[in-house]
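Box S1 | Example of a co-folding query
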Amino acid sequence: MKNIQSYISENKERFLNELIELLKIPSISADSAYKNDVLKTAEAIKISLEKVGCDTVEICKTDGYPIVYGEKTIDKNLPTILVYGHYDVQPPDPLELWTSPPFEPVIKKTDSHPDGAIYARGACDDKGQMYMHVKAMEFMTTTNQLPCNVKFMIEGEEEVGSANLSNFVKNNQEKLKNDVILISDTGMIANDVPSITTGLRGLSYVQVEVTGPNRDLHSGLYGGAVANPINILTKMIASLHDENNHITIPGFYDKVEELSKEERAEMAKAPFNLENYKKALDIDAVYGEEGYTTNERNSIRPTLDVNGIWGGYTGEGAKTVIASKAYAKISMRLVPHQDWEDITNLFKKHFESIAPKGVKVKVTPHHGGQGYVTPIDSIGYKAASKAYQDTFGKTPIPQRSGGSIPIVSLFEQELKSKTILMGFGLDSDAIHSPNEHFGVWNYLKGIETIPLFYKYFTELSK
Ligand code: BES
Ligand code: MN
Ligand code: MN
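Box S1 (continued) | Returned holo structure for BES
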């Protein structure tokens, strides 16, 4: 596209500085102590959308954090692209593992990012990737190259389950009407191996609580005579996988989509180096479900993982005690056709049924969402593929991801449109971890590629 490279090189410093300002605001949706910062971020996004030429921008109130909505209509007969992203971020803890403070962005060089990467919570997930769309819009409006209509919907509750966005979508079908949804909130294989995400896993997230005696007990006086909730909980959790690492919940695999030999062979063509994978994580072996490769285990297969576990005494030194209660948070990643509410019920029924006498078990569902797969013969996918071809010089590989963006399946259900997932992050960018970062090269490459998607999508829609 005419001038995009020169536009980027002329404005590079400003593009980086604007993102850095946005990353300084700790918009942690999970922690109410940051409420004002989350709201402040929504304001900042609103102003940024106004500046890049949206006709109307509003902050739409919800029962939780607001949704920033903006649009620019140039011609009702042209296609409309709906851009979705999120301005909230994960909590940054454990803070002591960050090499620089999470809300004081700095650019550092890394092995994967020789041109430097911006270190900050939200740099990749998703402020940096969301802001690429704002800057791509700036390029198209200021150079008079916006080829179609555009709508922006940027939410502040993605990291906590998008509870209020569902209602917003259901109640605003007409307003959100579009021909394709475009999201940059995923990753790609490597900077020299571009890929487009064609699938996301579903999610069921639950908390379990095991209660034994009515109070904490002396572990000498009572030890051995009553059920210890922590012993029991860990035993129950261990029983959720068999010796082949299959999940033991009855009915769990009933609806799992089985891929054909051909599809699996196609998947196996994606470049992947097991030795480098192990080295990057400092592990001597990978681990997972028997009969599947690493790339299959983390994308087309469902999983069950403890995300946190606590109870009893964890402070300094020793305290001899049998806790009254033990807890765990468990996530199950789901694949197409598995319904997250069905799975949550199956889990609850099973977990309650395996509790031995002497303890009480409570299962509390948190949130969840359906998985998603998108075809590669749609206009949207073809437009994205052509855009990457131009900017990376290579045809991108379609690849299913293991992560979840639960709202995507709701978009399809309510708005009847397909989502194209043009992610520019790398797995090594440490999203949700200490030292999250986003490559400067990736940020600028995203800004360069997005306008081409607009161009090709409009052309192919004719
Ligand atoms: N952007 C991620 C999801 C993601 C990352 C998908 C990389 C594919 C590749 C998103 O912000 C996220 O973290 N989603 C949560 C689910 C949500 C309900 C909290 C997840 O996947 O754990
Ligand atoms: Mn995200
Ligand atoms: Mn996230």
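Residues 205-256+302-369 form a domain with the Alpha-Beta Plaits fold (CATH 3.30.70.360). The two ends are 19 Å apart (CA to CA).
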